[in-house]
Design brief:
0% strand, 15 helices, mainly alpha, disordered N terminus
Length: 354
């Protein structure tokens, strides 16, 4: 009798049989389900459509006109603005500049941020429980401070520090005996203008991502590090084999955000070299767009540049996701899900056996 009751209880807990054709039965739409979907799906979707898709569609339309921005009159010119854009040497130079920014700024920033985060969280004693260095909170505050300062202020401060005549940088280098930097124009030389701008962007952003990675590393189970210590792994090996795979999703997200910031970089560059630098060596698409729109009043042409910048940003994000997938980024998540799936299958088989 007991076995019969157990079997019937297990059977009652099984999913309901599928409808005809092998499809699962649809659940009835109740008031709670409808309101849930409206609140948590309908409202965000409406906001996305109203404030993102519709404006982007309008931008594509204005990019195909010769609208001058301050009058209601315009003519539809089709793809002429895009054709003109890719025949514009200044725009192509700006496109190459943001490509350099998108490659080097995220790479250098994330490398430094990871180094700071690992040193703070895992740089403590090599014996005993895994813990960070002494004064870790102080180092977090110091590294995060540049990010608190607005980007325009950071750019203006560093523009004064790069000043060839009264800048602090040249003064320090001259004081160290490097007389050739007495009146060196860091932002006025083609060879040093872009590296100088990149340095400022990295300096302003590295603290935020260091704090982000510190929080991600804190979420890694301490047992993994302790097991690595028992196996004799050093800090460098532990970082490569445990820390980086465990925070891979955070690194991917940070790379996308940094890439988007580098593709724009309008505030930093405009504050330091508003004229585009020597031979347009620091000119970005955002600066070119701004000058074309407000100096030349060619808003249709400027909008076409904005559309291209948006497409470049989307392509960049897609490439990051693709590289992460091709390098095995989804394997870790699959391994984490596999034990749970096996547990559920074993539980199901055990219930059926009873």
């Amino acid at each position: 009798m007991k076995d019969t009751i157990t079997t019937s209880d297990a059977a009652s807990r099984r999913p309901e049989p599928a409808a005809r054709g092998g499809r699962p039965r649809r659940r009835k739409l109740t008031f709670d389900r409808v309101t849930f979907f409206l609140a948590f799906l309908g409202v965000p979707l409406a906001i996305f459509v109203i404030f993102i898709l519709i404006p982007f569609g309008q931008a594509i339309f204005w990019a195909m006109t010769d609208w001058r921005g301050f009058s209601p009159d315009y003519n539809f010119v089709g793809f002429d603005n895009f054709t003109k854009m890719f025949q514009d040497d200044i725009f192509l130079k700006a496109l190459r500049n943001i490509a350099l920014l998108a490659i080097f700024v995220p790479l250098v920033t994330l490398t430094l941020a990871l180094g700071v985060a690992v040193a703070i969280t895992l740089g403590g004693p090599s014996k005993g429980p895994v813990r960070g260095i002494r004064g870790a909170s102080f180092y977090r505050i110091v590294s995060f401070f540049p990010y608190v300062v607005p980007a325009i202020i950071v750019g203006l401060i560093w523009a004064q520090m790069y000043d060839p005549n009264a800048g602090l940088l040249n003064g320090v280098l001259t004081g160290l005996g490097l007389d050739r930097f007495d009146t060196f124009a860091w932002l006025g030389e083609k060879a040093t203008a872009m590296p100088s701008v990149m340095f400022v962007i990295v300096w302003g952003l590295v603290g935020f991502y260091a704090v982000l990675f510190i929080a991600a590393i804190k979420g890694v189970p301490a047992e993994l590090y302790e097991a690595a210590r028992i196996d004799g792994a050093g800090r460098f090996r532990t970082t490569l084999s445990i820390t980086l795979p465990a925070i891979r999703d955070s690194v991917q997200t940070a790379y996308i955000y940094l890439g988007i910031a580098a593709l724009d970089a309008f505030v930093y560059v405009q504050a330091m070299v508003p004229n585009g630098g020597p031979a347009n060596s620091t000119l970005t698409i955002s600066q070119r767009l701004f000058n074309v729109a407000f100096a030349k009043q060619q808003f249709g042409y400027a909008t076409a540049m904005g559309v291209v910048l948006a497409v470049v940003t989307l392509v960049f994000a897609a490439l990051v996701f693709l590289v992460n997938r091709l390098t095995g980024g989804d394997e870790g998540e699959g391994k984490r899900k596999a034990p749970r799936a096996r547990t559920r299958r074993a539980a199901a088989k055990g219930g059926a056996a009873r």
